[in-house]
Design goal:
By secondary structure, this protein is mainly α. It is built from 16 helices and no strands.
């Protein structure tokens, strides 16, 4: 049995312990929240003192951008640091910051982005050989600078670069005479490369008429021997809804395909009769009939802004994803990218939209 005095001592000890526990909890809480509420040295130290990793990364990334200090990115791990260096480089327009990125492909992407955003040809030379050639081509085509096509490297690249400029001019200025200057080389490498790079030009003249999707058009012509000049006349005929330009196409199958689409009359002013267009695919050879149907379906999805039509495509996921990307680009809406289930394709769609937005908002 304890005496009354001993009982009071025990009670006092328990009260003291209770107070110590409460004080300890308060201190721990204050320490946990210290980086957010208690000034502790520099902003960098505050970020580094954040306990939760993701919050720390966000804090460091924001600090690097706000201070335009790329050295802050070095405190971030791997991919987080690469994204940080790229973001600072983009904001400052300084491609030399990209050199801190250890991953070669991401370094090239960073450099090419900056070169395009600043219209600086010299920065293309900082990228690896292949990326550098593509960078020069993008800038040359967008700026209608055919003399700069010489920097793209091989003869095929130079021919494709120059031809893409001719096609863009024909479509933008609505003047078919530019088509005559496009390459007449039947080398598929040249003609396909021309089509692949049309999207880099200021081709505002390409309306979503007939085969609006360049990749679908390329898919149709994949096994056909055609020239960049042929491609120019086909696209011009589709834009003008005038089949007479199809007679200038040297490839007979391509000319037939061109005529079947461009001769269809429009209804209700600028809208298209998609039923007629789909019926016209019946006149295309069986080897390309399905591609014709898919091309028109993508056109209808874009024209009616109906993404559900993309799911009816029979060409597999690549066709469906391309349909969503076309909608995203046409309406400048990344929500369509969200419909792409494949993570890699989804990311590519978002990046493509980001690149296009940067060009519109200040990239030239």
């Amino acid at each position: 049995m304890y005496s009354m005095a001993q009982g009071r001592d025990i009670l006092n000890d328990e009260q003291i312990r209770a107070r110590l526990i409460v004080a300890t909890v308060v201190i721990l809480v204050l320490l946990a929240l210290g980086s957010a509420f208690i000034p502790r040295g520099s902003l960098l130290n505050q970020c580094l003192g954040t306990w939760i990793p993701q919050n720390k990364y966000n804090c460091l990334g924001q600090l690097a951008l706000e201070s335009l200090n790329a050295s802050v990115c070095s405190y971030l791990p791997g991919q987080n640091s690469y994204a940080c260096y790229s973001a600072v480089a983009e904001k400052t327009g300084n491609a030399t910051t990209c050199s801190e990125i250890a991953n070669s492909s991401q370094y090239d992407s960073c450099v090419v982005f900056i070169a395009n955003a600043t219209d600086n040809y010299s920065e293309c030379g900082l990228a690896s050989s292949d990326a550098s050639s593509g960078c020069y081509m993008q800038l040359a085509i967008r700026g209608y600078n055919q003399s700069a096509c010489a920097k793209t490297g091989s003869f095929d690249r130079m021919a494709a670069c120059s031809s893409a400029i001719d096609i863009n001019k024909a479509l933008v200025f609505k003047n078919s005479t530019y088509c005559a200057s496009a390459s007449n080389d039947t080398n598929r490498s040249v003609s396909l490369m021309t089509l692949e790079n049309l999207s880099y030009g200021s081709n505002g003249g390409i309306s979503y008429t007939g085969v609006s999707n360049m990749e679908s058009y390329e898919s149709y012509t994949l096994n056909q021997q055609f020239t960049s000049r042929d491609a120019c006349y086909v696209l011009f005929a589709l834009q003008a809804s005038n089949s007479t330009y199809c007679t200038r196409v040297s490839n007979s199958n391509l000319a037939t395909f061109c005529t079947s689409l461009s001769s269809r009359s429009r209804t209700n002013g600028t809208s298209l009769n998609y039923t007629q267009l789909l019926n016209s695919c019946q006149s295309v050879s069986s080897a390309y009939k399905q591609t014709c149907i898919e091309s028109i379906t993508i056109e209808e999805a874009i024209g009616t802004r109906n993404a559900t039509l993309c799911t009816t495509l029979q060409g597999g996921n690549s066709s469906i994803y391309q349909c969503y990307l076309s909608l995203a680009e046409r309406y400048n809406d990344t929500a369509y990218c969200g419909l792409i289930k494949n993570a890699t394709a989804n990311s590519a769609c978002v990046q493509d939209m980001h690149f296009n937005a940067s060009r519109v908002n200040g990239g030239g």
